[in-house]
Design goal:
About 0% of the residues are buried. It is elongated and about 55 Å long. The two termini are about 40 Å apart. The longest helix is centred in the middle third of the chain and has 27 residues, at about 40-65. Helices cover about 60% and strands about 20% of the residues. The protein is an alpha+beta fold. Strands 1-2-3 form a three-stranded mixed beta sheet. The chain folds into two domains: about 1-40, YefM-like domain (YefM-like fold); about 45-84, no CATH class. InterPro entries: Antitoxin_Phd/YefM, YefM-like_sf. Belongs to the phD/YefM antitoxin family. This is Antitoxin. Antitoxin component of a type II toxin-antitoxin (TA) system. Pfam families: PhdYeFM_antitox.
Length: about 80
């Protein structure tokens, strides 16, 4: 992934958004990564994957409820305390 510093990204914004149509572009500020610019198409694909993953987790949780695989809040807290 190509990486630009924030000043260069600002100065070359038009070029940056053209490049982002082909591949993500990282942006660093003070030597640290702060952002990644991606195409609108890639962003929509990422959002769709997130939504699919969330839907799968919700469906799994609902199935657990149907099967009686549930715990009370105090049971969860007790198990966590035992681990730590």
């Amino acid at each position: 992934m190509e990486v630009l510093n924030a000043s260069d990204a600002k100065r070359e914004f038009g070029e940056l958004i053209l490049k982002a149509q082909n591949a993500p572009i990282g942006i660093n500020k003070n030597g640290k990564p702060v952002a990644v610019v991606v195409s609108a198409r890639e962003y929509e694909q990422l959002r769709a994957l997130q939504q699919q993953a969330l839907k799968a987790e919700i469906e799994s949780g609902l199935e657990d409820i149907k099967l009686g695989k549930v715990s009370s809040g105090s049971e969860v807290i007790n198990r966590l305390r035992q681990k730590f």
